[in-house]
Amino acid sequence: MPLNSVNTNVGALVALQSLNATNTELNTVQSRINTGRKINSAKDNGAVWAIAQSQRAESQAINAVKESLQRGVSTVDVAMSAGEAVSDLLLKMKEKALAATDTGLSADSRTALEKDFNSLADQIKTVVDNASFNGVNMLKGAATTAPGTSVNALASPNSTPPTGTATTPTAPATITVAGVNLQFDATTGLTVTKGFADATAAATKLAAVEADIKSTSAKLSALGTGSNALSSHNSFMSKLQDSLDAGVGDLVDADLAKESARLQALQTKQQLGVQALSIANQSSGIVLGLFR
Q1: In this predicted model, what pLDDT tens digit does every residue of 149-185 receive, in sequence order?
Q2: Has residue 148 been placed in a domain?
Q3: pTM of the prediction?
Q4: Three-state SS for 183?
Q5: Within a domain: residue 41?
Q6: Element (H, E) at 217
Q7: pLDDT tens digits, one per residue of 204-248
Q8: Which one of 9, 69, 132, 263 is most buried, counting C-beta atoms within 10 A?
Q9: Which bin fits 153, alpha (ψ -120 to 50), beta or left (φ > 0)?
Q10: Which pLDDT score is estimated for 186?
Q11: Where are the alpha helices (DSSP H) in 101-198?
Q12: Cα separation, 25 vs 268, whole angstroms
């Protein structure tokens, strides 16, 4: 038989404990609805929170990789645009040199062609000298002969794990696009030089220009391949980041439809708990009737 006491109301204590538990659950559900997450801190679920933080770190690091790749693409594209301009100027130089091989030309006509030829050469030098982006000019030689003329873009958000006896991880992997040499000479650059005094000299210049046109096309093809590699990897990084973000969402995001249903149920349970506590508190008043 339950004890009738004014000091200890067991029914009220049980009702209060139930109400407190309901309020705790209600606060949790309201927090999930407010934040959209079922796990907001390590207190909610330490293991899952740690995994999510690791994936967030990698996703955010990918932003730096994408920025590096985008800078690389821009640098290579600037070099390609300038290289295409050089190629177009070489075509014009070929035209002038070919015209100058005509033995029937007057001296004045050949001199005019020579001036045009030399002017085109000067334009090529100007284009190459100004083909810089972010301090890198990829038309002034490969990285092995001219530092600062190649692109080294980040390819991974993580450092390379140590192998063998090494104790220190190496730097993240990179994608390198080597520069090309479209300067006049300066070792493996353009071979043609200015001026031709007669038809024979013009023929020599013509052969040199034709060789330069072929080599320039090959070099631009290499730059195009490098630009495609950077763009493709940047696209992959974007997809990888989306996958990581989706994975984090699966771990920590709340099902708002489910939480909304729970909220309704808990609010009803809370109201019932308040009423139960009120009824339990009234039970001690029955004792007063025994003394009337």
Answers
A1: 889 999 888 876 666 555 666 778 889 999 999 998 7
A2: yes
A3: 0.74
A4: coil
A5: no
A6: helix 199-252
A7: 999 999 999 999 999 999 999 999 999 999 999 999 999 999 998
A8: 69
A9: beta
A10: 66
A11: 107-129
A12: 12
**pLDDT tens-place string over residues 260-289:** 888 888 888 888 888 887 877 776 666 666
Number of CB atoms found within 10 A of residue 132's CB: 18
45 falls within a domain? no
**Number of domains, the chain:** 1
137 vs 79, 150, 180, 189, CA distance in Å?
Answer: 7, 8, 9, 14
Given this model, what pLDDT does residue 185 score? 73
Residue with tokens 């100027």: 89
Among residues 223, 93, 214, the alpha carbon closest in space to that of 149 is found at 223
Question: Could you identify the residue written with the tokens 């293991």?
Answer: 47
Close Cβ partners of 265 (under 8 Å, ≥ 6 residues apart): none
Token pair of 250 as six digits: 């699966």
CA-based nearest residue to 25, from 286, 292, 273, 279: 273
Check which CATH number belongs to the domain holding 174 and give it.
Answer: 1.20.1330.10
Task: Give the domain extent around 90.
Answer: 71-252
pLDDT tens digits along 97-151: 999 999 888 989 999 999 999 999 999 999 999 999 988 999 987 654 555 688 9
Inter-residue contact 83 to 275 (CB < 8 Å): no
| Whole-number pLDDT of residue 142 | 64
* C-alpha separations of 23 from 10, 17, 226, 232, 265 in Å: 20, 10, 61, 52, 12
Cα distance between residue 186 and residue 208, in whole Å: 15
Query: Would you say residue 81 lies in a domain?
Result: yes
